[in-house]
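Support reply, case 0932

Customer input (verbatim):
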Amino acid sequence: MKRPILINDLYQEGDPNETTDIAIAKALNRQVEYREGIFNVRIGGGAVHLTKHWVAWVDFYDDVESKGWIQDKYHLRIQVDGQQTLDWEVETYNPAFGAITLYMHWHDDNLIYIYAEKHDIYGVTATHNAVRHRVELGLHGTQVHVDQNIVRVIRVEHNPQRIIEQYRLPDWTPLDPLPHDKARELGLLEESEG
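Our regenerated output:
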């Protein structure tokens, strides 16, 4: 059985988006990084719809001329048929501490975007022109697994029994917790856990 994507594996290795960023820049016919006023603007993750070729990406605006108040910001953007149809400023506790793209993928006509900011990990569903859902998945260190249209979460806070929460995409509908025997079968827990 194929192991589900473990988002924290990607996050701990550094930037999981390096080759993705180059592909997204090519799809947008632009550079991965460019200068705009006081900002260096850099792609920080993205996804291309397999059949419709819609492009979704995050632009990181890095304030390189800060004079005391850092103005960093992140924007989730979607382009349809060469026209930008969504520009959502990514909600963070403080953008100066980052909003790292952990997962971005089209699920039919819904974009699923998971990111880590200063304290927490969030899941977002967007259509080509609107953000529909944003859910808090847990503090840093929370394990997040994506397996087709199911997201499984093992929170680090207040979870001594390592309860595995489950959500159905694209609407982040809560499902019953995953039993530990099934979690071990999927490789989400060690044999000794649970």
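We compared this against your earlier run and they match. Two observations from our side: The mean pLDDT is 87. Residues 18-28 form the longest helix (11 residues). Please reopen the case if you see a mismatch on your end.
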